[in-house]
Amino acid sequence: MDELESEDGVMVDVSAGQPRQPMGVTTLLGDSFSIFFGNFFKVYLLALGPTVIGLILSGALIGFGTLAGTSIPDFDGSSLAIAVVLVILIQFVVYAVTTALLVQLAYDAKMNRQPQLTRYLGPAFSSLLPLIILSIISGILMLIGLALLVVPGLWILALFSALAPAVVIEKAGFGGFGRSAWLTKEYRWPIVGLILLLLLILTGINMIIGFATGLVSVLFGSVVLDLILEALASTFGAGLFSILAALIYARLREIKEGVSVDQIASVFD
Question: Can you tell me the distance from the alpha carbon of 156 to that of 93, in angstroms, rounded to the nearest whole number?
């Protein structure tokens, strides 16, 4: 295996001059689902808390009935626009916290190590401030891209797909933007394809979940129950995307720097 070289602290791509290695899209996608379902309850235990807090804050802004889809907001105009923007920003924060926790679980699971949930809290929260700020900025850029032609938004999502693991694993801080850009260079379109595949799968799954939750809502008519089901459904998608981000980061470091998963995970030992 090639060793990572450094010249005055500048990362050098050890794969330079060699044929470009494939991302292994199907393998990454399969591993993401395998890790998720192989550690289902632990993933939910880590990810459900941030999701619930995000739903509570969002419900306080636009109304819990609106959030559950059972009523319309009782205000309009600029106030509604501001509230919606704040709700979107809250979702970015929830994703940042969830990813900070789950990237560590993903590496333990990949190495067949027993996940240690309490051990993940320290590294996650020590990286939280830059991760939240960078996630919000990248999220806004992605939304602008999606509003323009959709494809630019997906490309931006791919550009920053290694952001959260770089901040949590390498302690890259606000340099996470540049680190993710460097790692994803020449691999952004395969990452876009990978994200689209996951989105298509999640769309099908969410249709089934949506039908089930809609049926429960009609039968019981409880906003609280609707929100609980919404939290469970949101955690499902967030958990998969967080695990996928961890595996994308690991694969890119393997390709570009010759760094294995066990070397990445060793920073937490």
Answer: 18
Assess whether pLDDT exceeds 70 at residue 223: no
Residue 5: strand pairing partners: 12
Burial class (CB in 10 A: 0-12, 13-18, 19+), 18: exposed
Cα distances (angstroms) measured from residue 15 to each of 5, 24, 182, 189, 259: 11, 16, 13, 18, 12
Q: What are phi and psi of 12, to 5 degrees?
A: -115, 130
Q: Tell me: the pLDDT tens digits for 70-88? A: 667 666 667 777 888 888 8
Query: What are the tens digits of pLDDT across the range 185-215?
Result: 999 999 999 989 998 988 888 777 777 766 7
Residue appearing with tokens 């294995």: 260
- Angle in degrees, CA 54, 41, 247, rounded to 5: 80
Domain locations in the chain as residue ranges: 29-268
Distance, in Å, from the CA atom of 255 to the CA atom of 181, rounded to the nearest integer, reads: 15
- The pTM of the full predicted model, rounded to 2 decimals, is 0.82
Across 117-121, 167-171, 189-193, the highest mean pLDDT is recorded for: 189-193
Long-range CB contact pairs, 221-228, < 8 A, 24+: 223/64, 223/65, 223/68, 223/70, 226/68, 226/69, 226/70, 227/55, 227/59, 227/64, 227/67, 227/68
